[in-house]
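Q: Structure tokens for this one, please.
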Amino acid sequence: MMQTTVIKYGGSAMINEYLKTAVIEDLIHIAEEERVILVHGGGPEIDAMLRRVNKTSRFVNGLRYTDEETMEIVQMVLCGKLNKEIAALIQAQGGKAVGLCGIDGGLLKARRITSVDLGLVGEIESVDLDVLNQVLDSGFIPVVSSVALDLDEDAGRSLNVNADTAAAELAIATKAARLILMTDVPGLLRDIRDPSSFISELSRAELEQLRQDGVVSKGMIPKADCCIKALAGGVKETRIIDGRRPHALLSVQNLGTAIV
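A: Here is the predicted structure, written as tokens:
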């Protein structure tokens, strides 16, 4: 059976037209030899839509605070716009894709985070692979947006879940060999002000220590946490790569920070 790779797609690679094309080309190439699951974010697009309705984005520990109105916009942008645009791009370049969100087939089910007030932000509690496996077994690339079903509310309530975390949970559930996170940084740095402090490879324990020491901060916190979680769940390798570099996915063995 072919191995599975889960890729979290986000940052500049979702905005720059040349990078978009390069990512899609890479995905189609990888999908010829592996089962590929693409999980996407959409922070810049969500921010832009919130500005259009005069709402200010607020973040807590790298996670977006999500009230009712923000949740509507998150679901509209992620599930209704970006998800279908990405699937269409893959098909336009000769690939096969199906757009899904965590609500479809009960793929992702979550409960609201209560340890800190984040509004309608959830922590994934279960993954149902029925629909996802049907898509993969049919030779399609599943394109998954990170909106989940709320386990604690009436039917129909959606929760915003972090896309990095969603990718990690899907990697664990599918027993993926690799989890790749595309970012707008070269990888992990011991000092964010010093490019020469770049870390090419480290262990899970070393990453946990950097997390405790505060070296990992802001938006890198959920990325580090999901790498730690994925490795603990049986994923062999996670990698944080620079999505600003064209065809970074095909050069993945030589780019970014590997956590093994």
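A few notes: The helical segments are 17-30, 43-52, 68-92, 130-137, 163-173, 204-213, 220-232. The radius of gyration is 17 Å.
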